[in-house]
Every structure is written in C-alpha cells, then in structure tokens.
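Bench notes, bay 3.
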Amino acid sequence: MFAVENISFGYPSSGSLLTDLSFTINKGDVACLLGPNGAGKTTLLRCLLGINKVQSGSIKIKGRRIGDITAKELACAMAYVPQAATTVFPHRVLDIVVMGRTPHVGFTAVPTDEDYAMAEESLAELGISHLADCQFSRISGGERQLTLIARALTQRAELFIMDEPTSSLDYGNQVRILRVIDKLAKQGYSIIMTSHFPNHAFLLCNKVLIMKNGKITAMGTPEEVVTDQILSELYTTKVRIVELDDGVSDKLKVCVPMLT
C-alpha cells in the first residue's frame, strides 16, 4: 500500500531534520508514530503528504512515487485528517464534509447531488448525521474531529494520515475517536497517526514507529517496542508498562509515568 524508502529531508537554514527513514504500511494497518516534541513527526507527515520534497530516498503509494503522480491522483489515494480546528467562515458540517469530493470534481464544477449523498453517507457512518446543518465552528472539539474524519471518508481514499487525532479532546471524545479509527482499520483502511499517548498504541495499533531526533529508533508491534526502557529513554522520564487483567477480556497493557 505505502512504502517509505530511505528518505532524508532538511531545510538549508536548519540542516538535516529527517535521516534515512524507511517503513511500509499494508492494507488495514494502523501505524502509530510516537516521539517527543521536536522529534520530526510533523515534518515526516508533510513529506508523506508531498508538501515537503524529500532530498533523498522515495515515497511510494501502490508502487508509484508520489512525485510522479498528480496532486489530484494523490488526493484520491491519500486523505489527511488534521487536528480539530475551527474556521472563521460559517460553513455547515455537511459543507465541510462534501469538500472531500474536491479531487473528484472538475476545477470549475460544483458538487453534485451524488457528492452530497456520499457526504451524508459518511456522516451516517460516524453517527453524526444530526450535525449536518450545524455550523462547524459552533460544535464541540470531538464533533469537529469526527467531521474531519467524515470528510476524509467522503474523499474515498484508502490511506488516512492523522495528525494527533485526539489532541485537546476530553477522555470520552478521545475514546470515541479511537473507536472510529479501529472501525476504519477493520473495514480495510490503512492509517498512519501521530500521538503523544503511548497507550493508544496498545489500544488499536498493530505497528509502532518510535522517532527521536529525526530518526526511527525502533519499529515493530506495540508489544515489541512500547517497553519501559524504550519509553523512558524516549521521553527522558521514568515510565512503567503495567498489565491489567479484569478476568474477562485479554490482558491490557498501559503506560504509567512515574513521578519519583
């Protein structure tokens, strides 16, 4: 589905920011990118989206270099879900979601009834049809994040790139978004997400990339790489991984920071 092969990137004024990064994403994968502030996560996402042009190496989607395909083709294959934000314009939620059809609509054309039907279908898929006529800037942060995911669904791309999808959300809305991501993966979508919460890796990811100083320092399953030692070194603070057993479901691992 998606292959990053030995990419490096940097700005003339700041030197190298990413160095020799490689990984692959398969259909249905949920890959979590963990790392401290300044590790290069956002820079990497900008490279994956084709915004930053890598200095060496290649990024391929379904075997094609992203630099060799048009912006329209790339948008049909890959959808970006930013952190929940607002807008100064009084757009309805439905209008925001139908914007996902932009790659499929002609330059001078307007969305058709079919495009709006797809947008309504995405809202229904996420259980937020009741928000269709609400003003996007006036709904809650969790509802805005669900709206942006609905927009990505309407785009009909198979790969989602999500930048801290639960950032600034309360606990309940975080879980709600994580459930949606898990559901999308089970439907066959591939997802790359950044997070500052290692517990997210245990909850829904099958692949974890540990990133520090512009390099991938560890990669594998959550059980392999989300460990006491790796997290303690990554965040320069003592961390313990604890197993919970409620006697009903499989044991769940959680990350607990230690204050002493």
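Next record in the batch:
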Amino acid sequence: MTLFQFEVFLAIVQTGSFTRAGELLNASQSGVSHTIGDLEKELGTTLFARHRNGVKLTDAGEQILAHAREIIHHTEQITQVAAASRGVNSGTIRIGAFPSFSAHAIPGIFQAFRSLYPGVELILFEGSYAEVEAWIRAGVVDLGFLAEARDGLDMVQLLDDPYVAVLPADHPLREQDIIAIEQLAREPFLSLKSGCERLVMQAFQESGLRLNTQFEVAENATILSMVEAGIGVSVVPSMILSAMPANIAVKPLHPPIIRQIGLAVRTQHIVSPAAAAFIKAARMQLAESPV
C-alpha cells in the first residue's frame, strides 16, 4: 500500500466520482481506476460499488475510510514538522476560495505574501462554499476562505462583507436611503444560488417573510445583468459589485445582513509555519486594503 493510493481513495470519497477525483488530483480517470484496482487487489476486498450516478463506499470501504484519513493526517503532521525545521522560505500552500473572494481579494493577498516569501509556492483551488469546506476537511487544501464558521473547523475572522439590495435604476425604491427587507418581499426576486443566499433566506425567514422568487441564478454577473434589465431585484454581497453595471441602484439593508469571511483550517494546532505566515499576511493585507 502507498500514500498515493489512499490519497486517490479519499479523493473519490470526496468527489463521488473516479473522473472528478482524477481532475482533483490532475490524474487520468484510467489512472485513478488502476490505482484503486491495485489497492483493492492488495486488500482483497472491494472498496467502491459502481453505479450510473457515481460510486458509493462498500461496507469494507466505510470501515477503511477512517483509517485512511488518519494515515493522511499523520503524514501531514510529519511533513509539517519537517517544514518547521526549514522555516518559511520554502514549501507549498494549497488554498481554497469561493469565486467572489478569489476575484476581488486573492490577487492582492497573493502578491503581498509572495513579496515576503518568494520561495513558497501558492496553489489556488476555486469552488463553492461546500467544495472549499470539503477540501479543508479532506486535507486537499491546507486552508480555505469561507463565509461563516463551520463546526469542527478553526476559523480566523478576516472581514465583514455586508449584503446590499440591488434594484433597476428606474425602480421606485431607488429614492430611499435604506431598503427594509419587508419592501423586497413584495418584489419579483432574483436569488443568487452560489451558497451566499443562505444568509438572505435566513434573514427573511426570521422576519416571517416569504420571497417572491422568480429566478435562481448561479453567476454573479448574470444576476446583475438581469437586475439591470428590470427583471427583478436581488440581495447580494457587496464584494461582487466591483464590476457593477451602470444602470443599477445599490442600497443598504435594514436590518443589515452580513457575511463574515475568514480563513478556516482543520485545526490551528497543526498549521505549518508557511500556512501560519499566509494567515498573518492575509489579515494584514485585508486590514490595509479591504475589498
């Protein structure tokens, strides 16, 4: 048995697919299949049940999963001890981030960190909130930017990103300084389905309101274009508005809705020196140049 076999095994568990596991590991689907086939042959048992919609762990696979995670966890600890002896002048940091944060904050953070530690390689994994969280838990990334704390993960708070109401430029509510969420409940609503909508839904539910949702949209640019075209109104994080169309009105909300963005790790007790330095650099950069 090899560490790579267990890394492949965990990647398949994480993604639910041999093909997506290969994409995650930069390996071919056939290479992933061959690796797992060799592991199953060596163990004398089947680890995955294949079906049309993906793969599922067998009973034996379920029992082996916890041990595989422990093996990778202890391997990372050994690597971090070695990294500590070298200091922060070398190594690799794998970082997860969601798209709106990647677009508006990652360039500045990476540039600031590389100016301090040019010998450390930075690798960015971009995905949804759920994907970033799963990558952190599985050890695919060393740390990840997330909105809101997650059970079982340590999180360093970095910044608050307030949500705003976005309206067509000729909308009657454009004259108001602040928009009450009750006023939006009567409007045709465009929901941003990227993960950040959870806080919006929660705010309306806590106020006893039901949204008149007309469309659910995954891309930030698309929902802003639809608002500009007069199709409806929406509530979005301020961070996505740097490339805002000209014909949109932006208003603060009452009560405010705020997503708290931070850097999450499995536990700060096993963070490598390079990762700890990255966290410090990210905090300094965002304090000096908030997005």
